[in-house]
Amino acid sequence: MEEAKYAMNIKEEKGRQNQMIENRLKAERPRVVTEKAAKGKRDDKAAKDSSSRQEKNKAPNTGRKMGRKPDSGEKSSDQKKGPKKEQRAGGKGKWGNDSQKPKYDTGRNRASGGNSNFQSREGIKVDRQPVRKNTSACPVFLRCGGCQLLDMPYEKQLKIKQTKLEELLKPYCKVQPIIGMKDPFHYRNKVHAVFDHDKKGNPVSGVYEANTHRVVPVESCLIEDQKADEIIGTIRGMLKSFKIKTYDEDTGYGLLRHVLIRRGFTTGEIMVVLVTASPVFPSKNNFVRALREKHPEITTIVQNVNGRDTSMVLGDRENVLYGKGYIEDILCGFRFRISSKSFYQVNPVQTEVLYRKAMELAALKGKETVIDAYCGIGTIGIVASQEAGQVIGVELNRDAVRDAAQNAKINGIKNVQFYCNDAGAFMSRMADNGEHADVVFMDPPRSGSTEEFIQAVVKMKPEKVVYVSCGPDTLARDLAVFRKMGYEAKTAWGVDMFPGTSHVEVCCLISLVDKKGK
């Protein structure tokens, strides 16, 4: 009787969540009808213009810009320089007319930063699929490429991710059911917009179109923080009145390149980062004052200077124009300081789920020595500190280590120490000095770890390794290395940190099999 009642409650909860998601999509669709209609008119006009240009350019190819296709030896658009202005404005690239393009949806975007060939930055690879009609509530779904699964019901998205996790990880361990979100919309606390201009010189902001440096204008995004999108729109609207030009990557002229917004979902604090090509910012005080008048909720504004010909968004130099130059947010009951370059998970709701699962797998008793490798600003180590005897955090990024030490001080934590060093070399030296760790937390970048690093972990002879992965494919590769060295993966939990996309985070417990050598 109790089992039947439990099953009924589960069914009702799933029904309630699906209905909520469907209502959310219905609410969004009316908003984009006008945008889609306007886009259709623009596309028709662009097609006519393109056809007219082709008629004019039927002369033999002389290498002139007009009508010339790139040779095989030319730079591709994912290198430092993108296509020339004629290609960006006219909608022509390597494949000429749209009808000649391969029928696959690929993209580079502000939401995930990776290619949408369903090869995720966060790890899952989904087979290439033929281009489908846009049934999503997002008007730029097929051009942006960042939300590969946004046109699917959320339950189906989770099934796809679960299947891929099982294919990758079942040879090594048991894969538990993926943990999804109750409300899989507007979850990103970090929003990045590229700034450019149209043919008439009007400023636009948005994302890079698939495999190009053409900017797709975006007014709002279903996975990004709504307040951040609103602030970006305000900045775009202010540029003309302040005579601020957007940067042109072909000519190298213009000032504003990008805008980055970070928001603390718990504290409500908001950081605005204006990425400029030059440190000279005319009327910057008046600009900041006007922006704050329109958005008094902004707590700090930073100018980041990036004058290099590079695909990197942020440069090395920064000027604080207003506020303290950073924001703070609360995660798992701890307060964290976040600067413009800090690594901080983009989905704070699911990050708490992920970190709770990591602590559950570690099963700390209060006396263990814990190493937090790739510690960043210290989030995992600080959360673990309340259940461990001693925590050692190691990170190569000096700015992140400084933030981590500050975060420990803010939270009054005495049993955590942070070191600026290569984590693998650091652990090797500890092992050579006869030191030992009971648990190692590792949260490497999307490229995964290295065999040298894993060897360093094994030298420490920890009983448990908790591997937090944003790349399930590289996790599978690394689990094979651990197995060769006497460790076995026991269980893995998928946590859907990136609804609407093909990306997924994984938390995996790896245990020492042969403890005789301890």
Explain what the structure shows.
By secondary structure, this protein is α/β, with parallel strands linked by helices. 33% of the residues lie in helices and 20% in strands. The strands form three sheets. Strands 1-16-17-15-14-11-12-13 form an eight-stranded mixed beta sheet, with helices on both faces. A seven-stranded mixed beta sheet has the order 4-3-2-5-6-7-8, covered by helices on one side. The two termini are 49 Å apart. 43% of the residues are buried. Mean pLDDT is 81; it is low at 1-10, 31-36 and 50-129.
Low-confidence stretches are: 1-10, 31-36, 50-129
- Describe the oligomeric state of these chains in a short phrase: single chain
- What is the overall shape? globular
- Share of helix among residues? 25-40%
Give the structure's gist in a few sentences.
This protein is an alpha/beta fold and 518 residues long. The protein is built from twelve helices and 17 strands.
List the helices and strands and how they pair.
Layout: H1 2-56, H2 85-90, H3 141-144, H4 154-169, E1 174-179, E2 190-197, E3 203-208, E4 215-217, H5 226-238, E5 256-263, E6 270-276, H6 284-294, E7 300-305, E8 317-322, E9 327-331, E10 334-338, H7 348-362, E11 369-373, H8 379-385, E12 390-395, H9 398-410, E13 416-420, H10 423-432, E14 439-442, H11 451-459, E15 464-469, H12 472-484, E16 487-495, E17 505-512
Parallel strand pairs: 1-16, 6-7, 11-12, 11-14, 12-13, 14-15
Antiparallel strand pairs: 2-3, 2-5, 3-4, 5-6, 7-8, 9-10, 15-17, 16-17
Helix pairs in contact: 10-11
